[in-house]
Design brief:
Shape: globular
Order of helices and strands: EHHEHEHEHHEEHHHE
Largest sheet: 7 strands, mixed
Structural class: alpha/beta
Helix content: 25-40%
Distance between the termini: 17 Å
Number of helices: 9
Length: about 240
Amino acid sequence: MTSAQDVQGSRVSRALVISAHPDDVDFGAAGTVASWTASGIEVAYCVCTSGEATGDLDTPRAEIARLRENEQRAAAKVVGVDELHFLGHPDGGLTASLELRRDITRVIRAFRPDRVLTWSPEINWDHIVTSHPDHRAAGEAAFAAVYPDARNPHAHPDLLAEGLGPWTVRELWLADGPLDRRNHAVDITDTMAAKMAALRSHKSQTGDADGLEEGMRTFLEAAAQRHGLAPGRLAETFQVVNTG
């Protein structure tokens, strides 16, 4: 499947990435996003928190939030993304609440994506570091926003008052779920440099971390081999679900 087509072979014009924190997309899917924007897909980011639950305890949380939002904007620009939405829900305390579902539904109805990429609500027991509770909450709320909320005119009626009518997302991509559920690999060998540049934009998180690129390459090469790609290729893998 080419990146600009969905599972039904229809053209994909817009894709929305919904993550819990700044930097999630860059660790999990920046190579894929770079391939999408290169193929002409318009991509936007919806970040549920501003990543304020990090850094030293003496720095005001609002300052950390501004820093991390700016880092995410810089990282997004590297892979061709200019539109970002920060929802401002609490970092470390994210839940799949009706309020979060409404806020994500608002972005979906406004942006009207053909494809949504988010994080799996399931635990990946093989690599639990990617199964942060905030990640899973974002994925659960995003799934509910995709189906049924965004397409249901009776869901969140205040959005109709804002002029945001129903919208059906045709395809859902889930990152970081259980390995046996991942049914699609994106070869990101040619966009790896962009992925690493995006990751390094998050200086407060990655700094000058020794071995970051080597570790990422090892991880992505193993993923590529699991999906039958040639030796030396790199891949990001997903569970792709037809939600049309």
